From TrEMBL, chain A:
The lineage of its organism: Bacteria, Bacillati, Actinomycetota, Actinomycetes, Bifidobacteriales. Residues 1-25 are annotated as: Disordered. Residues 1-18 have a biased composition (Polar residues). InterPro entries: Peptide/Ni-bd (IPR030678), SBP_5 (IPR039424), SBP_5_dom (IPR000914). The chain crosses the membrane at residues 32-53. This is ABC transporter substrate-binding protein.
UniProtKB/TrEMBL annotation, chain B:
Pfam families: BPD_transp_1 (PF00528), BPD_transp_1_N (PF19300). PANTHER family: DIPEPTIDE TRANSPORT SYSTEM PERMEASE PROTEIN DPPB-RELATED. Its main location: membrane. This is ABC transporter permease. It is a multi-pass membrane protein. Residues 94-307 form the ABC transmembrane type-1 domain. It comes from the Bacteria. It comes from Bifidobacterium miconis. The keyword Disulfide bond does not apply.
Amino acid sequence: MSDNNGAHGQSGATTDSSLEGRAKTQKNGPKWWLGAVIGVIVAIAIIVGVNLAKPNAGAQGGNPSTVETGGNAADIVTIGLKLAPTNLDIRNTSGSALDQVLIGNVYEGLVARDGNNQVVPSIAKSWEESKDGLTYTFHLNDNMTFSNGDALTAEDVAWSINQLIKNQYHDADSLSMVKSVAADDDKNTVTITLKTANSNLLWTLTGRPGLVFDKDATYDAKTEAIGSGPYTVAKFVANDSITLKANPRYWGSHKAKTATVVVKYLADDNAAVNALKSGDVQVLAPITENLAEPFTSDSEHYTVKAGDDTDKYVMAFNSKGKNTSDKRVRQAIRYAINHEELIASRGGADKALGGPIPSLDPGYEDLTGLYPHDEAKAKALMQEAGYSTDKPLKLTLTYANIYGTELGDQLRSQLAKIGIDLKVNVVEFSTWLQDVYTNKDYDISLVDHNESHDFYQWADPTYYYNYDNKEVQRLYAQAIAATSDDQRDELLAKAAKIVSEDAPADWLFNYRVTTAWANGVSGFPVNLNQTLLPLYNVTYTK
Amino acid sequence: MRFIVRRLLLFVAALFGVSVVVFAALRILPGDVASVMAGLNSPASRVEALREQFGLNRPLVVQYADWAEGLLRGDFGTSILTGRSVTSLIAARASITFPLIVLGLLVAIMIGVPLGVAATLARSDAARTAFHVAGLIGGAIPALWGGLLLILLFARGTGLIGLFPSQGFPLDGWAAPGQAVWSLILPALTVGIIVGASLMRYTRSALGDIAGSGRIDMAMACGMTRAQAVTGVGLRLAMPQLVSVIGLTFAEMITGVMVIENLFALPGIGSGLVTDVGNRDLIAVQSELFMLAAFFLLVGLIVDLLHRALDPRLATAADATEVIA
């Protein structure tokens, strides 16, 4: 008996062994076991049965590409994205997740940009620029409406931009050179007058500063959105999903082709891949390249494509840091980094980037030749600065946990070879914002700067890079004041080259977003789709 | 009666303590919601303006008093980032987490209790070792790995047998009850298997103790078979112990299922809390933590009161020694 009590058996508790003997003879134990065994066998049989039946079922109905009766467009397309907005307040809350889902879909700007990052008409059908570059006149489309039925007039446009400046909403400082914004309802025009010429103005207006809001509407901007775009927000669940419904009052040429688009935010990469496999989403952007293999190899059912983007993985060296103020150390790090290896380990879609301007931005020039991978040169520079593998320099790399730990490990092992003992400090994004971005308390930082037209960061000595080069600042000011695009591009390219030579940072790579979708989906933008995702053209034919 | 009053006073005092600790601890975190909102391309002046707007520049004592005063009125405040009341945020998340826990516990009970009984009934050393090892392995499975395994086996699209959705909660939520339950099955299984393994060990040891105390032998002496004695008498005697284990597990799982929620992309309490902390939405976080702590304390209070109701011996013992449970 005591044997049966497991670890808690107490021999004192045993009784007449004949009782036990009788219990044994009456046992229904074998039957119990038999039942269990039968249960397991039945379960296995069901599993095998269902499994065998599955391929047939799949061939009959579950296979979208075999249906060739065409024209059977789905009413709902579900899209999986990664970074979720916490609210819908695009005037106050930072983050490209809001630009991505709202601009061009729910809100429209005075002007817009296309997949090649060029300015195209939107609310304004055309515009003129004065010779001195100080006055812009925008001619608006006729009969525009908001989704609530209100007419969209020149008055709304001017009000929106003036409010942005007056209340200092997000990105307001990019319009600091604006003197006045005036509406002429009779002519249906809006005139923007500048204090100084600015070659970036039109592009700036494609983003948040140019968005047009309804002057007369009152709504809770954090949970609702009233715009003039092809879609309206039907439902918003913070950090989870947004349901977009076609705007029945849409006025323009970008009419929604699919009645309902559901955007699901899948923070976990594996969950995202599972969602695409199971058909819960039809598109996944981005898909982690290393997890895309099952889709790339199944071209009968899926398409996988990488698009061009302005994402720059900037590994900034604090130019006023204790050790990183030494240019030799910064240069040594740039020589020591093996960009090809980094890109290959991420799947190979990303592009090497030798300087601060990516290929889709004005002033781009291939600068990858400036600091080629050269360990010997790197070691020599470190030697000069007084460090070697025996007497390594201790530096700390601080970056946000959203970028994963592999990147930090790779950099640590690459830099160890030239005598840098890199401590990798992976923190929450908000901690990075506080320590690095606000307090500038760091040696080396890493962040994905996905903004476009953001060279100003290198011309602003108060930015967290702590980079202060008068020549760069002068060239940038000239580029902004330039009245022709060619002149601007040339000046920017010149400035970018100086920055890259100074090595205040290493641009690890230009991240290119990989998008995967089930065949049958069309019209999904591949370029720039983490900041600019017009969905009006998206359809899914089963 | 005195005990109940004292216990209630202690409950209130603990709530007050929790509110102070939670408030203070969160203020030590680096970063704030204003800089998260302002992001990467805003000047410092904008961060400052946002801080002013949200009242983050006021003295901490004033901020605490403001929050505590709201709590007294049952107002948990408004999340700065989402602009929704914390109560509605919690309610939306709890409507996923609580059903998940209940389902998970049902699975755990269905697995754990029968196996625990079987382990007690098993006669041969080999069988008992097998149960012991199964219990250890089940309890040691990392939730993430177990979940991935289940996805590989049973998830639609990825699995060997595509039965259940592997991620997400239906858009309509509980308005589509069938889909909602369906989407919780794999996560509940993952939770259930792991918790079931520890429940099995609890069951076995509780039954073992009871058997050791001679009650099973007594029942057998009255003519029951061993199996009858263990399931009929032993299990009934072990029930209070098991119920309190299950109760405590329930409370623990509210945040414990976070890994599972992330893996299956379910916007529940745990994953929501992590997001809010990440965004430094401190008003939301402190109210959420406060509610969780209050829930834990409440469970403790109820368990204490129940035990006293069930077992009068506790009352006399406590009064005699002035011990407060």
